[in-house]
Write a structure and sequence with these properties.
Blueprint: H1 9-13, H2 23-30, E1 35-36, H3 48-56, H4 69-79, E2 86-89, H5 91-103, E3 109-112, H6 119-126, E4 130-133, H7 145-151, E5 156-162, H8 174-181, E6 186-190, E7 211-216, E8 229-232, H9 235-244, H10 252-262, H11 265-289, E9 293-294, E10 301-305, H12 311-320, E11 323-324, E12 326-327, E13 336-340, H13 344-357
Parallel strand pairs: 1-11, 3-4, 3-5, 5-6, 6-7
Antiparallel strand pairs: 2-8, 7-8, 9-10, 10-13, 12-13
Helix pairs in contact: 3-10, 4-10, 5-6, 11-13
């Protein structure tokens, strides 16, 4: 029996998403300590209260609340948006998938503004959707709003915008956002790095029926391993999202971790401040090297152009030294490297290695 004949042909042909590898595997490869600056993870980890709350919780044998009541109440207080607008997911990745399951029929389209987060086209293809790629502008990776509006047709359902954008670190302006909302398509603003920037579109959601804002606890709160995110949705869409999600999609450990984190905001914001301060120092150090071009960033990473050398070769030589950053093997980003902002000592190790290599 040929199993391939049972699989949807477009899924046989599609390219898989390329994830980063866990630190344990990287340590095995280099046989020692690694400097991990490839996943946009928080180097300071989660709140100490998370560990204690997980240890104290005694009902792991009971299913979590499918209605997400405590999570929604806590997030309503954190965001200032009423709980009716909030839906939680197993990372914002799940929410991206659910949005597309909700609205896409085979042959429907999404707008993807590359280079950007790879889960938008990945999830769209799984749902049978087609990708309209409207590339960001060459000089500064700004959005091509005119190009986006010109690419829309009767089959276009969703426009995805990451702000700050991964991997370029720049943001959408409110005027640009309103132009996209006025197209009548569903506009999804992915604010995975919101806490490093502080400007949000969430307050606009209750008054715009086609605007969605997604966020995550992976970056600012150091909960990447728990896979927990949330979205701010128009109430009607939120109701549909709750209808189609898996009943127990957020596990109880993730719920406990989020509630503990939201009870320790000052600690977490202190870590965010450390990262944003270090981001500016790292930017200056990278610029001083002279042979690469760092792009200003509102997130916890910096994209660097490598115009005169091979970005892939630098990436490989850093790996040999136990330093892991992100290289995207795509035509648009073949001359670029993305560096997560680590602790000062990790960033210093990176700079010294770059000086040795070039």
């Amino acid at each position: 029996m040929d199993i391939k004949k049972l699989v949807r042909p477009e899924l046989v042909a599609m390219k898989s998403y390329t994830p980063i590898e866990p630190v344990e595997i990287l340590e095995q490869r280099v046989r020692g300590k690694v400097v991990k600056l490839d996943g946009n993870e928080n180097p300071y980890g989660c709140s100490p209260r998370v560990y204690q709350s997980l240890a104290d919780y005694s009902r792991y044998h009971i299913y979590p609340d499918p209605e997400q009541r405590k999570l929604k109440e806590a997030l309503a207080e954190y965001t200032g948006i009423t709980r009716q607008h909030i839906v939680c997911g197993s990372g914002s990745d799940e929410l991206i998938d659910l949005v597309l399951r909700l609205v896409l029929e085979p042959g429907d389209k999404i707008v993807n503004c590359s280079p950007t987060f790879g889960m938008y086209p990945f999830s769209a293809e799984i749902c049978g959707g087609m990708i309209i790629d409207v590339s960001r502008k060459d000089e500064d990776f700004a959005l091509d709003i005119t190009g986006i509006k010109g690419a829309l047709d009767g089959k276009t359902k969703v426009i995805f915008i990451a702000s700050p954008n991964n991997p370029t670190g720049n943001v959408i302006e409110e005027q640009e956002l309103m132009e996209l909302v006025d197209t009548g398509r569903l506009v999804v603003i992915d604010e995975a790095y919101f806490e490093f920037h502080g400007v949000t579109a969430a307050s606009l959601v209750p008054t715009h029926r086609n605007l969605i804002v997604l966020r995550t606890f992976s970056k600012w709160a150091g909960l990447a391993g728990f896979r927990i995110g949330y979205g701010v949705f128009p109430v009607e869409i939120a109701d549909y999202m709750m209808k189609i999600k898996q009943p127990y999609n957020v596990n109880i450990a993730a719920e406990v971790a989020v509630l503990a984190s939201l009870g320790d905001i000052d600690y977490l914001r202190g870590n965010v401040q450390k990262i944003t301060t270090e981001r500016e120092r790292l930017f200056t150090k990278l610029k001083e090297l002279g042979w690469l071009k760092p792009y200003p960033s509102k997130a916890n990473f910096i994209l660097c152009a490598i115009p005169q050398r091979s970005a892939e070769e630098i990436w490989r030589q850093l790996r040999q030294r136990g330093i892991f950053i992100r290289y995207f093997d795509t035509p648009r980003l073949k001359d670029y490297l993305r560096i997560t902002v680590g602790k000062p000592e990790d960033n210093d190790a990176l700079i010294e290695a770059l000086k040795e290599i070039c």
